[in-house]
Amino acid sequence: MDGVKFGLKRFVFSRFVGSLCDQFLLFAVPLAILNATGSLTFSSLAFVIEWLPRIIFFPISGFLADRLKPRFIFFNVDTGRCLLLLSAFLLLTWHPGATFATLAVMMALLSVAYVLNFVATDAMLPRHLPAAELPKAHSMLQGVDQTTQVLGPALAVAISVYGGVTSILLVATVLFAVSAVNYLFLQTKDPVVEEKLRLRSVIDDNRVALKVLRQNKILLHLCALTWVVNLVYGAALVVSAAVILQEFSLPESYFGVLQTTAALTTIVAFLFVPRFTARFGLSALGTVSFCTMILAGAVMSFSPDYLVYLAGYAALMAFDGAFSVYLRTVRSQIIPQAHLGKTMGLIGLLNMCSVPASGLMVTLLSGSFSPLQIIGIILAGALVLGLTLVIAGRRMFGYKSWLPPVMVSECQATGLQ
C-alpha cells in the first residue's frame, strides 16, 4: 500500500489537529491550575498525575496496536478526547472551584490517549507504507509536532482572551471531533490476530516483546543511545528557564523567544531531512544528528550571552527531532511487523523513564552548581556514554557506519514465533 491509497496526507492533517490541541492544553492547563490554586505544588502534582499513566499504559497500548484496526484506534481515541474535553468544559462551567481536580484527571486520561496514538502510529506506518517512504512520513509528523509548538501557545493566548481555559477546552473539543471524523476515511488494514482479547494475552505479548529485544540486541543498543540523547535533551528543557531568568537576568519573554526559535529551526531542518537521507543514508542522518546535539550542548554550557545560548538550544532541539526520525525509521525496519505494536510499547516504556532521570540529575546537581554548569556536567557524562556505546556497537554488531544502518534482522526475515 502506498501513501496515497492509505491516506498519508489525511492522517497528517489529523495529527496536526491533535498536536495543536495538545499544545493548547500544555500551555493553558498549568497556568489555569496555578491561577486557581496559587500553589506551585499543585501545579507540579498535576504534572506527576499526567506523567505516570503514560509509563503504565505503554505496554497495554502496544498490545492493542497489534490487535485493533488502526482506523478504529485513531477514531475512538479522538472521539474519547472530544467527549472528555466536553465533560471538563461542562464541569468547570457549573463548578469553577473544581479546577484542579477536573484538569488533573482530564490530563491523566488524555496522556493515556496520547500514548495509544503514539504507539499505534509507529506500529501502523511500516505496515501501510513502503520502506522508502518512511523517512519522509516520519519527517512530516515531526514537522507537524514542531509547527504546533509554535502555533499552539500563540493561538491559545488568543482564544483564552474570550473565556480563559474553558474557551480553550471548547475549541479543542470541536477540533478533536473534526479529527475523529477525518480518521474515518483512512484506508487501513486489519491486523491478523487469531486469539481473543484477554489479560493473559497482554502478559504473553509483552513476553514476546522482551524476546524480540533479547534476540535483537541492536534494539537495546538504540534504546541506550536514546537514553543518552534524552539526558541532554531533558536537561536542556528543565534548565533553560533558569538559565534565562537567573544566569542572564532576562525577562520571561526571552524564554518564549527561545522556544519559538527552536521550533522554527526544527521545522526548517525537517525540510532537508528526506533529501539528506536519500543522498547519504539513515545512518549518516543519525550520526550527524547525534554529534550535532553533543556540540550544541557544549555551545550552551559555555554560552557567554543569550544569543549564543539561543543558537545552541535551537540546534539541539532541531537535531533531536532529526535523530528521532532516524531512530523511528530504523526501529520500524528491524522489528518484525507482526510484533511492531507490542515491541514499540515496551521500547516506549524504557525510553520514557529517561525523562525523569534527567530531571532527577538536575535536582541533585542544582544545590551545588549553576544551570550552565549542570548542562556541562550532564553533557560530559552523555559524551562519555555516547562514545562508549558507538564503539561497543560497531564491535558487537559489525556494521561499518558509526550508528546502526537500516538492516533486516533475522527476526524480521524469518518472523518470531
From TrEMBL:
Pfam families: MFS_1. One of its GO terms (molecular function) is transmembrane transporter activity. Its main location: membrane. The keyword 4Fe-4S does not apply. One of its GO terms (cellular component) is plasma membrane. The keyword Cell division does not apply. The chain crosses the membrane at residues 12-33, 72-94, 100-120, 168-186, 218-242, 254-273, 280-300, 306-326, 346-366, 372-392. Keywords: Cell membrane, Membrane, Transmembrane, Transmembrane helix, Transport. It is a multi-pass membrane protein. It is found in: Cell membrane. It comes from the Bacteria. This is MFS-type transporter involved in bile tolerance (Atg22 family).
